[in-house]
Design goal:
24% strand, methyltransferase activity, globular, alpha/beta, Methyltransf_25, 6 helices, SAM-dependent_MTases_sf, single chain, seven-stranded mixed sheet, 7 strands, 209 residues
Length: 209
């Protein structure tokens, strides 16, 4: 990706004309992938969707029965477009929209049961591994004890970062469309990230051995 994907100025210019765009796969496909994890959540679950851009993922989550959703992006135009998409789809606005930078989150005190991003981590990574690590550390602070982060990426090594505060699992490898049958196989990756346990939190006390 071009290096300016991490710059707010790039997105401001882009979102001035772009009203709808889905990265890598449609939101409906993404929802199919994460459905087993959504089934484990109550409808009241707190969800953070960061880097919403001009995707309609938040509307799919609301159709699924979730409304306690915070949609965050550091470009205000994305927030305006997202709020309008919800209004157009449902006739009202029930979700929360917030201008926020994932690398230095400052949100009302709360813990999220689920964090989702559709290529936002990819864009952040254009600022370097330190930027992505900062975002991961911020997200870890806002996750509930049993919360998870699900991230869609074009990269097979997106979260190979030192000091990453998460255990990482690939839950889906999605074939990218081919222009010609002879094109090489290329895949997109959907990651499940769980916070690492604090050292010693799982150890058996000596008195019980």
């Amino acid at each position: 990706m071009p290096s300016d994907y991490e710059k707010q100025s790039y997105w401001h210019t882009r979102f001035a004309s772009e009203k709808s765009f889905e990265w890598l796969i449609p939101s409906a496909t993404f929802m199919d992938i994460i459905e087993p994890h959504l089934q484990q959540l109550p409808s009241s679950a707190a969800i953070l969707h960061f880097g919403l851009g001009t995707s309609d993922l938040q509307n799919h989550l609301r159709k699924r029965g979730f409304t306690n959703i915070t949609n965050a992006d550091y470009e205000e135009l994305a927030i305006e477009h997202g709020r309008q998409r919800e209004l157009d789809a449902f006739g009202d606005v029930q979700m929360t929209y917030l201008v926020a930078d994932a690398t230095c989150l400052d949100m009302p005190e709360r813990q999220f049961d689920l964090v989702v991003d559709k290529c936002a981590a990819d864009a952040i990574s254009c600022g370097g591994s330190d930027a992505l690590l900062s975002a991961a550390q911020e997200i870890a602070k806002y996750l509930a004890p049993d919360g998870i982060w699900i991230s869609l990426s074009y990269s097979a090594s997106r979260f190979e970062l030192p000091q990453l505060p998460f255990e990482v699992q690939v839950i889906s490898r999605i074939p990218a469309p081919k222009l010609k049958p002879t094109d090489p196989d290329i895949y997109h990756y959907c990651y499940l990230l769980r916070p690492k346990r604090h050292p010693g939190s799982w150890e058996i006390p000596e008195s019980s051995l």
